[in-house]
Amino acid sequence: MAVAELVKSIAHTTDLRDTYVPGHRTCAGCGPALAYRLVAKAAGENTIFIGPTGCMYVANTSYACGPWAVPWTHAQITNGGAVASGIAEAFRMMIKKGKIQDKFPNVIVMAGDGGCSDIGLQAMSAMFYRGHKVLCVMYDNESYANTGIQVSPSTPYGATTMFTPAGPAIPEAKKHQMKDPMPIFLAGGHPYLKYGATASIGYPIDLMNKIRRGLAEDGPAFVHLHSPCPKGWSFPPERTIEIAKLAVETGMWNLYEVENGDWAHKKFSVMPKKLKPVDEYLQTQARFCHLQPEHVAKIQNFVNNRAKALGMEVPLPPAQ
Amino acid sequence: MPIKKKGTGLTAVADAWQLADIDVSASYPIRPYTAVMAELAKRIANGTMQCEMVHGEGEHAQFSIAHGASMAGARATTGSSGVGVTYAFETYSPIAGSRCPIQALVGDRTLDPPGDFGSEHTDCLTLRDNGWIFGWAQDAQESLDNSLMYFRIGEDPDIMLPQIVAMDGYFVTHIAQDYIMPDQDQVDKFLPKFNPKFRLDVKNPVIMGPQIEPEMGPPLEWDRHVVMTKVKEKIVEVTEEFGKVFGRKYAPFVEEYLTEDADMVFVLQGAHAVTCRSAIKYLREAGFKIGLCRLRWFRPFPDTALAQILTKFKVAGVIDTGTSYGAPCSGGVLSTEVKAAMSEVAGKPIIQSFTSGLGGETITHEEFFAMAEMMKQTLQAGKIIQGGTWVNFNDYHEGASQINAAKHEAAPSK
Ligand SMILES: Cc1ncc(C[n+]2csc(CCOP(=O)(O)OP(=O)(O)O)c2C)c(N)n1
Ligand code: SF4
């Protein structure tokens, strides 16, 4: 693995050129849009983005108006990993044959949680398995947002979405706990996938450096990027960053890296001194406002168990 | 020097892909097309070809990989058969809509059920409305030649459309035949390097496939339709030039056989033309004035050529080797299209629909004779006596005889 040139501070980032620029129609306070800007800034100009269908395609390119100063192409919601595989191998082969003089570009898929962990998982898994030099960023707004906020595998237990309203028969709204793509992809089943990380827009320097480490790999890399969505989660747009941080402080989101494919020795990049009760986080979003104490306890329980399973040595709030 | 070879339609297309110096090919196994990928893999392994073979996790991924490669500026191929063709369905319109001229080989296979390996054209015909250009080859030589012509037409800057080199499973994909592999110099003269005006290039950034204003969509869709009319002009031009460079002359759209004095013709596409021609020799001896019109293209559909040619005859029997359940006149897709193409044409023949060769059965001489007999009744009566007929089983086929007997018992009056 080549050594990534890391970003040291926010002040340092002002030297970097923005390639995700104005010209999009995302909601005010959109977490994924901010995520895009930081990823693009970290990646630099020798970059090609692939955007499977989702908010970051539709809201970014509506009415033929797009915000990129680097090449971008649409992919279907189902096939971002496959399209990126074709792009990466085409560059490799054309450069090898001397058909083009390009420097091999950063190939980045920006896929939503629906497009990456539900309908497009096969295309991502196969891309990792084959070992293409592609970075997959799963920006996670915890729903199928672009179709009007429906439940996805990332939607937390207890959240309301259009497909999981709360009602007397189902008082907790979403009944399933969420799917975690990190162990699916990184716990050893994809031998060429050496680098994976979780990141959050609440921690921009950490995020940008994880993108750079991923891009420095000779093969594929995966970054699971928590990106709060004011529209889907029902909170005021000015609270996006605060909520992103609160997710980490409560353990609703954990920040770690897996290097050299070593799942057992993951590195925590941000470790709160102790986790705050999840209720503090749930209170900030109307999608959780119907929850009863027993539901909140269930979430706390889940969060505590996940923290333990990941190996976080940190005091946990009581689950009852 | 061109080389005389013995091989199948699949090895012939592998030859074409080698000569075209493809950069990326995406594979997934399904019979019968699979052998072309096995052939490529061998050639890549032994260094005959420099091409990245990406093993897709399914056909949807295969076509997506080729799509990505094409957007990056590579010459890319893929292929499939039967349910593999339909599994990739989502990808066809985006590939054609982004004007990526990838080439796919479809070796036809019956859709499931019944899990039949035999050839039916239904798989390929299901994607006829997606903006790909395609037609059927009747043998290995034509497969190779079509592959080269399709690259040339599809990659033309005025066209930029994906292509399918379609061929009947087994009959063309697997029967070893003599063919000529052209010389590299000839191919280089005929087929320029793929050099798209736009590709994913950081020095010249473009946004591909954005969402657009609602009123921008229909003009783009209409443009995809209009370009098909340009394809027709290119076909004429390229087929002629192909003849000059390689010395093999093809009719651009419709190959005619013994039609000069004919009052009836079979209309079909693909490999069954070979048996049809030999059946016609016997029919001629028996006094039938019958010939054959073989379509070389299905998209764009050769309506102008057919309008000129078919008006020479009194009866045209269109043979579908595929199914379209509930289609007009109990025909298949081809017969429906031929009828539509001829609907406004003055002096058109009576067009009769047949379905035959299902499940990859050979359309036997007897079956062609039976169809000719029915067409003769039509000719004599001046109208169709028996509409949409499935001519599917020989009498020597025990199961078929039982089915026939049951049919007669159920409807004794017929
Ligand atoms: C095959 C297919 N099925 C369904 C859709 C409809 N669709 C469009 S955007 C979208 C939501 C995508 O959700 P996600 O990947 O989580 O991204 P987000 O919109 O949340 O950014 C869906 C389901 C589609 N475009 N294609
Ligand atoms: S719905 Fe959510 S993800 Fe989509 S644009 Fe709005 S804030 Fe961003």
Automatic annotation (TrEMBL), chain A:
Top-level EC class: oxidoreductase
Record-linked InterPro entries: OxalOxred_beta, PorB-like, THDP-binding, TPP_enzyme_TPP-bd
Occurrences of domain Thiamine pyrophosphate enzyme TPP-binding (ranges): 68-224
EC number(s) on file: 1.2.7.10
Domain of life the protein comes from: Bacteria
A molecular-function term among this protein's GO annotations: oxidoreductase activity
Keywords annotated in UniProt: Oxidoreductase
Keyword Oxidoreductase among record annotations: yes
KW Oxidoreductase (keyword) present: yes
Protein name stated in the entry: Oxalate oxidoreductase subunit beta
The species this protein was found in: Sporomusa termitida
TrEMBL record, chain B:
Residue ranges crossing the lipid bilayer per the database entry: none
Pfam families the UniProt entry points to: PFOR_II (PF17147), POR_N (PF01855)
Keywords: Oxidoreductase
Domain Pyruvate:ferredoxin oxidoreductase core: 262-367
Keyword Oxidoreductase among record annotations: yes
Top enzyme class: oxidoreductase
Full protein name: Oxalate oxidoreductase subunit alpha
CDD domains membership: TPP_PYR_PFOR_IOR-alpha_like
Keyword Oxidoreductase: yes
Segments forming domain Pyruvate flavodoxin/ferredoxin oxidoreductase pyrimidine binding: 19-237
A GO MF term: oxidoreductase activity, acting on the aldehyde or oxo group of donors
UniProt-listed InterPro entries: OxalOxredalpha, PFOR_II, Pyruvate:ferred/Flavod_OxRd, Pyrv_Fd/Flavodoxin_OxRdtase_N, THDP-binding, Transketo_C/PFOR_II
One GO process term, biological-process aspect: response to oxidative stress
EC number: 1.2.7.10
